[in-house]
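User: My instructor asked us to take a sequence, write out its structure as tokens, and then describe one feature of it. I'm not sure where to start. Here is the sequence I was given:
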Amino acid sequence: MTIYKKNIIRVFDFLFSFLGLIVLFPILILLFIIGFFESGSPLFRQKRIGYNQKIFILIKFRSMKKNSKSVASHLIDNSAITPFGYLLRKTKLDEIPQLFNVFLGDMSIVGPRPCLPNQKKLIAERKKRGVFKVKPGITGLAQISNIDMKTPTLLAKKDLEMIEKMSILDYFNYIYSTFLLILKKKL
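Assistant: Let's start with the prediction itself. The structure tokens for your sequence are:
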């Protein structure tokens, strides 16, 4: 991805995250309050690997019990997910606080999903392909292709495919496709 594309995408990321936080503020407050009553700690902060393998703190709404292990979601037993957390995950509302990460510049709206420091295989696969040369994102080609962190090699390959072909039109297409997928899952 060229520096020009990265700069244009950063402008869109900044604008969309800023507007998203303003428009979604009432929903953020409501989900925060509900989460507070369920767990006493509605926000979940976790170390993730970002741009150039720099560690940053990802912010999400808590969907699992407080003392759950800090591992990839597919490695957690479903009993660790709270009732409200199940709703948050199904609707992807747990992802809304990541707009703060985008606003601050740690993430992009579109990019490879940020991995945990303990996901050694995925880190190695992404490093080998140069995936860490772009900011991680909330959504991307792997997410709309239903590829997750259970298959690290396939995921890294799909991440690289997205990075190599990324255009401004693709950026908007991935966002649009993500919304369509969320709507289909809710119906």
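For the description part of your assignment, you could build on this observation: Residues 3-23 form the longest helix (21 residues). Try explaining in your own words what that tells you about the chain.
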